[in-house]
C-alpha cells in the first residue's frame, strides 16, 4: 500500500466517508473507489460492496480484483430516553449498530436505564450537530415532545442519514410536518421521515414497537421496500 492510499484511507475514516480499496490480484496494483480511473463495471462492484458491507472478488477485463470496503460504523442515534428506547437499544446493539441516546432530561437518560451506552444531555439540536449524522447513521425521535423532537429532526433532515423515523400518530405527524415546513423543509425532506415509525406488524408494547423500528431500519439499510408502517400513538 502506497503512502498516498494509506493517507486517503485515514482521511476517509476521519471524515466518516465510505471508501473501497480495490487490489488487482495479478500484480497488487491498487485503486480507491470513489476515485478516478475505476472502470464502470468495477465501480458498480465496489458500490455494491460498500452497500452490502462485504468484501468481494470480481473480474474486470480479464483481471481479478479484490474489493475491501472501508465503511464508517453503522450508528443509531436515539432521541428520547423513553421506554421504547430501553427496548430498542439492546436490540440495535445485537444487530451491530453503535448507539447514542440523546435526551436533555437527566432523570430519563441515566446509566441505570441505559448501561454502557453513550448518553448526551445537550439540547437535541446541539447534540445532533455534534454527532453529524452521515450515510451510515439512522436517527429515531421518540420523545413525543415537539420541543425535543423537532430540533433533532431539523438537523437530521439536513444530513445524509439513511433512515429518519419519528414516533407519533398520523395526526401528530401532520402537525409535525407543518412545523418543519415553517423551518424551511420541503416535500422531499418530509418524505424522508418514517412516521408513524416502524413496520406494520401490529406492535403494541414497547418491545414490539422496538422490533418494528429496528426492522424498518434494517429494511432501509438493505434497500428493501418500506411500504407499511405501525400506528404508534
Portion in helices? 25-40%
Q: Taking strands numbered 1, 2, ... along the chain, how are they ordered across the largest sheet?
A: 7-6-5-8-9-10
Sequence stretches where pLDDT stays below 50 over 5 or more residues:
228-233
Mean pLDDT: 92
For this structure, the quaternary state is single chain
Report how far apart the termini are. Answer: 54 Å
Per DSSP E runs of 2 or more residues, the count of β-strands stands at 10
Q: Which secondary-structure class do the elements indicate?
A: alpha/beta
Rounded to an integer, what's the Rg over CA atoms? 20 Å
For the record, the CATH class of the largest domain is Alpha Beta
Q: If classified by CATH, what would the architecture of the largest domain be?
A: 3-Layer(aba) Sandwich
Helical segment tally? 8
Strand content: 15-25%
